[in-house]
């Protein structure tokens, strides 16, 4: 840890002001657009609190439940935990930069971290990614302090953040091999592994996670089998390049291309030994970032990897790239083309990140790019849910037995959007028979609904034959177009719709909610 310089306090004050302003901006922005399907799905989880869920760990549901219980159900409160999470992650990043480098590095780290699209998405959408990044940042900081000071308090703080991370998203388990890899390659801190402290800290994290293990054991390991399925465990083991290019492109898009290139170059320069050998923390950042990116890169050689999956590893990578490229790190850093060249590249990377992220955020609420609506994901996922909810409620009220009529979709995404945006926020149903297993399988049984009528919102006009397998009678569908709409505008019907739904009136539910496995070999199939 270096001694403070005379102008450090001014730089740190500027750093905290920047984080505060960005947090305030996100708090305001978080209420400017409708919830996307994954967000309403997690909100649904928060209305059915449990120790685990089919898709992943429960922390996102717990935090949304707390926020909505205290402040009411709105887009803002659903997203509040995510906004808070990125702020905490940013604070930890600054603390690491300041402690092991300098106030200048801390300022540059804050400057770039607040600009990255991936981090902003994680902070503005109610998903587990923001909570995961917060846990990774907290665990990284306290584990580093523990390696340095070897105190019980720091080890257990790191263990607690590790446990919080596991409760947020299963992939935080990668923190353990990253931490172990650093210790094995570090002459300075390898000896810490002969102490019981790191193992007891790890045990603390696992104890925090034990309710999720119990839930999985009680539900035939459904969540673990689901994670294995999306990781390609159900497919024959083959290696190919079909998804590798998509993986790299998604990382470049979410980080912005220039910054992604600088991060990769930072890893390469570390491997070449072009870093300040006197500062062990560069090695620590390398081992808590590259293995995450590389692990998912290897997985992409077998199956499709979503762009957000390795996002938490960039918490460390961003700080490492700041050290190599911002021109504010120790002079012993080898910058290749020189400090002037690296500084120019860094400034352009930061500027391009702000520009790119700014355009995307503006596009969500006011389209500035001439993208056809159907290709604009911000429009296809968030537009028109409120009006659809009101229309569906009107149809339900016109049903012969409105009080005994339930609402459903064939996908959990639509069922969850209906639950949030239909007036009164009713319980809704996902008929999973022809799609895939999800959390709705735990909330509803056929016996709960047999004999009832229903209104379904589907994505095809050709579903009547399927519906007749589970209902006595089904009417012809009503077409409902959704147009791009902003919080201060009416729907723009002069352009093609961003989505089209088909609303079915169904009568006399016969049963058949649960997913039917396509084959007995499907890893998701419940064991007999």
Q: What would you note in describing this structure?
A:
- Helix 20 links the parallel strand 1 and strand 2.
- This protein folds into 2 domains: 9-365, no CATH class; 379-509, no CATH class.
- The protein has helices at 8-29, 37-46, 59-71, 75-100, 103-113, 117-124, 128-149, 152-168, 175-185, 197-218, 222-230, 244-255, 257-271, 280-287, 290-299, 314-325, 339-365, 377-382, 385-398, 412-421, 440-443, 446-449, 464-467; strands spanning 405-409, 428-430, 453-458, 471-474, 478-482, 499-509.
- The mean pLDDT is 92.
- It has 23 helices and 6 strands.
- With 528 residues, it is α/β, with parallel strands linked by helices.
- Helix 1 (8-29) packs antiparallel against helix 4 (75-100).
- Strands 1, 2, 3, 4, 5 and 6 form a 6-stranded mixed β-sheet that branches.
